[in-house]
Specification:
Layout: H1 6-14, H2 29-40, H3 46-54, H4 62-70
The structure holds zinc ion (ZN).
Zinc ion binds at residues 20, 22, 68, 73, 75.
């Protein structure tokens, strides 16, 4: 039976998003965990996350963070 979303899912498997800095962040496990919580929290802005990362000498620009949060990067399409 045809699923209404089947074509979208197939397409999504083909369209890999752009590379994402999330993959190359050099953070401790505790920081990664905190970061993931922040990413999942709608009340914390991407700009704030960029600043938090800057304090840890990591570069991830807010609009790329926003893209990651939307699931439009390669992380979501592996
Ligand atoms: Zn990503």
């Amino acid at each position: 039976m045809a699923d209404a979303l089947e074509q979208f899912r197939e397409l999504q498997n083909i369209v890999k998003g752009p590379r994402c800095a999330f993959q190359s962040l050099d953070l401790s496990e505790a920081d990664i965990q905190a970061l993931n919580e922040a990413l999942a929290s709608a009340s914390i802005t991407s700009k704030t996350i960029q600043k938090w990362l800057e304090a840890r000498k990591q570069v991830w620009v807010y609009y790329n963070i926003a893209r990651h949060r939307r699931g439009d990067c390669r992380c979501a399409n592996v």
